[in-house]
Amino acid sequence: MNSTEIFGFSASIFIGISLGLIGGGGSILTLPVLVYLLGINPVLSTAYSLFVVGTTSLVGSFNFMRKGLINYKAALVFAIPSFITVFLTRKYLVPSIPNSLFTVAGFEVTKNIGIMLFFALVMLAASYSMIKGNNKKEEKASGELQFNYPIIGLEGAVVGVLTGIVGAGGGFLIIPALVLLARLPMKMAVGTSLLIIAAKSLIGFVGDISNVSVDWRFLLEFTALSVVGIFVGSYLSQFIAGEKLKMAFGWFVLVLGFYIISKEIFFQ
Fold it and tell me: Cα–Cα distance between 141 and 183 in angstroms, integer?
């Protein structure tokens, strides 16, 4: 194992730590680690990302279940359309994307480049969400839950497609939706988000099994390290202010997003 691979496996621990600390961000790290540090094909990396993020989020959600910080009704309303779209996206849409998308000024945008560029745009949106943070009204959202079923369902479907294409859990979209549309308190929104991410990511991975060849030994070793990380992150969350950490992580994601764009366009 060379130094890059060692660094890549070590980074898997930080994927879990991110999920444990701020309830999201793990998938933002997973794809770049798999592609750039471990040299795995972007399409296969999105499949692996679904499994890693799904399994790690599922383990992380158990602690929120124990504390009663998951709203299962909200999870169900959001997750059903998300389950359907993520499965269909991984099963049919991703395999149908042509290897060559288009050519601009002699530069060919392939399927792999297209996926990474789209993922970078997702990262920029995620960074904005994390840097902007949540206002006091959102943090204190409570009282009787009010469900805007059409909007929650629509966003669930959109997040499912997003997850299916780039292997991202979409926590940066799910948590604001649960706070604003279902009026969940922030801690409950984070716990509910982890359960939704876990379920839809693993369902998306199931849609991939017939389309990709999975190196199970590698995938389980990488995932195990990420699971260790979420326990570390959950412990550290008792001592670190989540919102300040989320803002710092948002700036990191912003830089990483621009790095991916520049690398895919100028340094192929």
Answer: 5
DSSP string for 74-139: HHHHHHHHHHHHHHHIIIIIHHHS-SEEEEETTEEEEHHHHHHHHHHHHHHHHHHHHHH---HHHH
Tokens of 179: 């706070």
End-to-end CA distance of the chain: give it in Å, rounded: 25
Binning the chain into helix, strand and coil, the percentages to the nearest 5 are 75, 5, 20
Residues 225-249 as b or e (16 or more Cβ within 10 Å = b): bbbbbbeebbeebeeeeeeebbbeb
Residue 187: pLDDT over 90: no
**In 3-state terms, what secondary structure has residue 71?**
coil
pLDDT in tens, 2-52: 777 888 888 889 888 877 776 666 667 888 899 988 999 988 988 898 899
For residue 266, give both structure tokens.
Answer: 């100028």
pLDDT of residue 238: 77
> What are the φ/ψ torsions at residue 8 (nearest 5 degrees)?
-65, -45
